[in-house]
Amino acid sequence: MTRVGVIGATGYAGAELVRLLCGHPDIELTILTSRQYAGVAYDAIYPSMKNVTRLVCEDMIVDRICDKADVVFTALPHKLPMTIAPDLLHRGKKVIDLSADFRFTDAAVYESFYDGHKAKDLLKTSVYGLCEIYFEQIRNADLIGVPGCYPTSVLLPLIPVLRSKFVDMDTLIADSKSGVSGAGRSLSLTTHFCEANESFKAYKVATHRHNPEMEMVLSRETGVPTTLTFVPHLAPMTRGILTTIYAGLSQRISLDDVYDCFLSFYSECPFIRLFNGNKFPDTLYVRGTNYCDIGFKLDERNHRLILISAIDNLVKGAAGQAVQNMNIMLGLDETAGLLGVPFPI
Amino acid sequence: MTRVGVIGATGYAGAELVRLLCGHPDIELTILTSRQYAGVAYDAIYPSMKNVTRLVCEDMIVDRICDKADVVFTALPHKLPMTIAPDLLHRGKKVIDLSADFRFTDAAVYESFYDGHKAKDLLKTSVYGLCEIYFEQIRNADLIGVPGCYPTSVLLPLIPVLRSKFVDMDTLIADSKSGVSGAGRSLSLTTHFCEANESFKAYKVATHRHNPEMEMVLSRETGVPTTLTFVPHLAPMTRGILTTIYAGLSQRISLDDVYDCFLSFYSECPFIRLFNGNKFPDTLYVRGTNYCDIGFKLDERNHRLILISAIDNLVKGAAGQAVQNMNIMLGLDETAGLLGVPFPI
Amino acid sequence: MTRVGVIGATGYAGAELVRLLCGHPDIELTILTSRQYAGVAYDAIYPSMKNVTRLVCEDMIVDRICDKADVVFTALPHKLPMTIAPDLLHRGKKVIDLSADFRFTDAAVYESFYDGHKAKDLLKTSVYGLCEIYFEQIRNADLIGVPGCYPTSVLLPLIPVLRSKFVDMDTLIADSKSGVSGAGRSLSLTTHFCEANESFKAYKVATHRHNPEMEMVLSRETGVPTTLTFVPHLAPMTRGILTTIYAGLSQRISLDDVYDCFLSFYSECPFIRLFNGNKFPDTLYVRGTNYCDIGFKLDERNHRLILISAIDNLVKGAAGQAVQNMNIMLGLDETAGLLGVPFPI
Amino acid sequence: MTRVGVIGATGYAGAELVRLLCGHPDIELTILTSRQYAGVAYDAIYPSMKNVTRLVCEDMIVDRICDKADVVFTALPHKLPMTIAPDLLHRGKKVIDLSADFRFTDAAVYESFYDGHKAKDLLKTSVYGLCEIYFEQIRNADLIGVPGCYPTSVLLPLIPVLRSKFVDMDTLIADSKSGVSGAGRSLSLTTHFCEANESFKAYKVATHRHNPEMEMVLSRETGVPTTLTFVPHLAPMTRGILTTIYAGLSQRISLDDVYDCFLSFYSECPFIRLFNGNKFPDTLYVRGTNYCDIGFKLDERNHRLILISAIDNLVKGAAGQAVQNMNIMLGLDETAGLLGVPFPI
Q1: Which terminus, N or C, of chain A has the lesser number of Cβ atoms within 10 Å?
Q2: CB contact under 8 A, D244 and C177
Q3: DSSP 8-state assignment for residue C24
Q4: CB distance B238–C196 less than 8 Å?
Q5: Is the sign of the CA dihedral B128, B129, B133, B138 positive or negative?
Q6: What value does the mean pLDDT take over residues C64-71?
Q7: Residue percentage of chain C with pLDDT more than 90
Q8: Which positions in chain C touch A282 (Cβ < 8 Å)?
Q9: What percent of chain B lies above the pLDDT cut of 90?
Q10: Domain at A2-125: CATH code
Q11: C277 pLDDT band (50/70/90 cuts)?
Q12: Under a CB-based contact definition with an 8 Å cutoff, are residues A2 and A331 in contact?
């Protein structure tokens, strides 16, 4: 049975990895590390895990990690994964990184939005882990850059209609709304209960670091430099991203054309669910799941296509997609450990 | 002292009117009606009002209303105000209606999105009560159609930049997010706690009845037929609307140009607050107030202007703006009864 | 494989049954009924279930149910299960009822708090399905009355200390706080988002119908008539019950005595988790799980023992405990289908 | 016009003081201090205050404060007020402290739950500012220790029935539920949105520092040492405390006796609202107000009286009661600045 470790197991993405991996039938979770909580039992940090795991957080020591795990998830702030990934890969481990460090093929783009990159060579072989789109590359990869939560919610609905050339690539706008867990477990006034409750606000308007990540992928898809206006918002809920995309139509199409486009594009994809007939996604429907729900509407008066997607930012937007990548890399069923039945409410 | 009545006092807009009018220094609230709760003490319906008002809800009887009130607010579902307003006006009352019945100048537009109109004559003299824009007309009006909550949040940020010809009128998109109180007090699964909590969703995508209302005003402002793609969303909070507007630039402008445009346009408007310097509105900042907060950002890479507004849907989006209309009509200070200090949280 | 049906599948307890049964490895869910939604696909009612189940709700027809299912869960309002259970039992089905109809051994008690009972004979053989306490009886039962959510949260912490005679049975007080889902999916102002959000209130103070249910069990445990002051409250959250119990000490005991009492009493019980050392249960820790977390504190100055329990009202308080009963009745592992890994947040 | 200053103006109690004082008709708010935000405009810290105040936070310099203010509110962590209050009083200022520093008459009690006391002399003259109970002493005081939020919610319902000798003073239990703002603006995991949302929990079980404060007052009222079992809980909402009190009856009384007791006790008290006839307080009814709502129920089977109170922890539980104290001290109408009309939702 494949042995798996989680580096950075106590942030929300790490904790969600632990949740999914503890319930995964085909792997064994063997090591958790935490800079902040080394030496502390995991269920003392997350008491919901009492009786579920007896793992104790450890320091991040490469030798120890390599002894214990064949696949390593890194759920760390950016800049840290690039310092540890080369060692892990060198020792034959598969690395699935949830930060931005290995999402970009062009180090210069990374460096203009983040910091200096210390493992540029790896960018040549790392694969952008958007599973439904880059399945084949993932299957052969040793190093995955798991997409950001917002890019996942934007790219999955947008790529099919772009490939079908339904929309004009100069007109793309994405308006995203995220639950508070997207901001992580670090303390801040923004995520203080009393300042987030009954609050709805935009932030990093047209300046979010996921913007260049999305544009890199969009440009790869269209073959020409493609940009996107992107505005993220914070909603008073724990989990979920709802993204509304506005795109000008480049040709006369019908609702059926759009539906058929998605239906055929995602026919083999167990985590994509399509909504049509004036039904639309809701973050509540995907809470705790790895689904990406997609709905759409033609605004014919204005010659625009409106796409709406919903994901759980911690699952399909982070830990779930990371596990899906692992499944693909290991030749397991893509859905292994990811089909927990959704909650009705 | 002017005597004021509220017809339909137990829905949320009506209840907010009662709140504001009970605290208004220059008028006397004399009569409340409710079809559902006639005969019931108001503080038995809203126990927060214990010790504040002793009014008892009455049936909606025109003679009685006319005996008791000089100004009448109608906070009823559409189609009802048009049946009572003619009588009230005929007896010399001023009528401020919160439904859609008197917002449209063209009955055909109303009828295509609502129902048959039974008081078309009144549409010639009724005034669209967007106070900051149509102050002069309001001052002389006897009948006001108070703008919808979404239109208020869209028009106040958009009209100044349209008048300044900063943006291309073919590119207008408004993405609005509303608290649940916007759906009113009527029971439905959509507003059931367990289905609204942790839920974020779009609804009436590009088909909301506030769409033609906004386009009527925008067309009036631009002088040519002007359309808008509009998508409303429901957020898990009680109060507030945040609207994000995307508009293509029609000329090269700077952030200062936008700020100056708003600053001069709204220099005399006590309820408009401007945000600049990468600070943006938040529904929490306007909760319970009549303010409309406006922020903006230039997305220069994409030649777009992004406008962001926040209002309390029940105050500036309904009852507060209605009272502001009354103040203007009566020659009172525009802010009378509307300057309760905002809550920090 | 045992075939299972859910009668009343669209209320929240029914929907939670569907969730758990769809993920259960040892049974097959074969039929769902709904008076309100007969003929409607289940995933049209709960879109979170898209791709998970293709079952369509049916009318409640006994023949059809008996053709399709060996075990039948009834998740109906009280008075209805008693009309259908006799038929089901007569045809050899096992029946697990989530209403109050089969919780009482004494029909007179039932009738004084509910209505006339139409299947009194069955009360002689029905078993009160509090799994950790009545495991042996459940194993041999054909008809289970699943305990109410509040009684589960009160009895599991209270019975061990009562059996140990630590507390004076004349001093029992339980103060419970429930999420809104406890009120079900029926629409009411109490559960309207805007009236439940930011609201905390008591209801049915010392008059709740779960009070006699608890007293029946407590009296059975103590051997003498035992009463309880019980006050339920509604908290602004979807799921969870936290119960705080106050009991006068009948003897001098230490914290270790209490801990040891629980430890030995529940040593074989996979769903009981104990908190000690100034750590206490939290509804968030049990959200979506079948756990009952129990904590305690000695208030030595006042000679009282304070017990605190947390459950998910829809799982351990309803559907999860119902499935646990089924597992025991069928001789399956008690935990089958009930060990989904808890969420960190 | 009396000039007023707020020391520690940026915590939630301080911010609520600023809100109330900005709307107070009879005083002028002249100085705000903040250790953390000295030099920062108040509306940059709380943007809801844009257009409302132009005050800028200052360092806490006694000379400057004394120049600017006649009445000083100290909204600081305990231990700090005792270092500044002597100077302020010496210069003839009136001081209203919201910490625990001046609530106790016996320094030893303070020191056993807090820290060493550095201004013990002042405890002889400081007055416990529970306005409805100690009105006369407050009227003549120069230094007020404003009661804690929980003690306010416990003492106001309990003192009348204790004075009437309805209940046995050995049986007192208070189970309180507080919104998250009670934990203040300091960052912590407990108040992190994702850990507080959908979470209900007890904390400091029978060890909260408000326990001795309540017992001091109760003992003063009964004339003998009187204790109380007190368990506070945290509820997922911003504002509000609901307290449920359980007390054994010491005599045979009727519901009317209880109602009459409260009615006569609080006949002159504008901020006490009584609920009877199976109606009970709700935190939503008092949100943003200075009311303390009180309801009650006789549990005759168990010979207990159940009292239920609701307050807004930041208003009647802190800033509102502080302003009420100021009004009384200055001989103003007790309600000045405190009668903002409550919100319906």
Answers
A1: N
A2: no
A3: -
A4: no
A5: positive
A6: 98
A7: 98
A8: 47
A9: 98
A10: 3.40.50.720
A11: confident
A12: no
Q: Which amino acid is at B53?
A: T
Give the contacts of A131 (CB within 8 A, at least 6 positions apart): A138, A271, A321, A324, A325, A328, A334
D86 Cβ partners below 8 Å, 6+ apart? D119, D122
Q: Write out the DSSP string of D192-226.
A: BHHHHTT--EE-STTT-THHHHHHHHHHHHHSS--
Q: How many whole angstroms separate alpha carbon B309 and alpha carbon B294?
A: 4
Alpha-carbon D67 to chain mean position = 28
Q: Could you read off the pLDDT of A224-256 as tens digits, one per residue? A: 999 999 999 999 999 999 999 999 999 999 999
pLDDT of residue B115: 87
Which residue in chain A is spatially nearest to B204 when comparing CA positions? A278
Residue owning tokens 């669910």:
A273
Do B2-125 and B149-313 fold alike per CATH?
Answer: no
Report CB contact under 8 Å: A193, D12.
no
> In terms of CATH architecture, what is B149-313?
2-Layer Sandwich (3.30)
Check C49 against A15: CB less than 8 A apart: no
Nearest Cα residue to C343 out of C266, C282, C301, C258? C282
Is pTM beyond 0.80 here? yes
Task: Map residue A295 onto helix, strand or coil.
Answer: strand
From D243, D318, D230, D317, select the one nearest D281 (Cα to Cα).
Answer: D243
For A63, other C-beta atoms within 10 Å of its C-beta total 9
Average pLDDT, chain B: 97
Token output for C100: 């109050």
Strand partners, D157: none
- Residue A274: strand pairing partners: A294
Arithmetic mean of pLDDT over chain D: 97
The whole-angstrom distance between residue A79's C-alpha and the CA centroid of its chain comes to 18
Chains that touch D (3 or more CB pairs under 8 A): A, B, C
Considering only CA atoms, which of D292, D271, D274, D296 is closest in space to residue D283?
Answer: D292
When pLDDT is averaged across residues A278-304 and rounded to a whole number, the result is: 97
Interface of D with A (CB under 8 A): 12, 180-181, 185, 187-189, 191-194, 196-198, 236-238
Mean pLDDT of D269-295: 97
Residue B144 in 3-state DSSP? strand
Catalytic residue IDs of A: 149
Confidence of residue A277 (pLDDT cuts 50, 70, 90): confident
In a mutagenesis test of the C interface, which of B190, B192, B234 is the best target, namely the one with the most C β-carbons within 10 Å? B192
Whether the Cβ atoms of residue C163 and residue C265 lie closer than 8 Å to each other? yes
Note whether ipTM > 0.95 here.
yes
Rounded distance between C-alpha atoms, residue B88 and residue A90, angstroms: 84
Nearest by CB: A345 against C18, C181, C289: C181
Which of C201, C227, C280 is the closest to D282 by Cβ?
A: C201
Domain spans in chain B, listed from the N-terminal domain onward: 2-125, 149-313
State the pLDDT at residue D277: 85
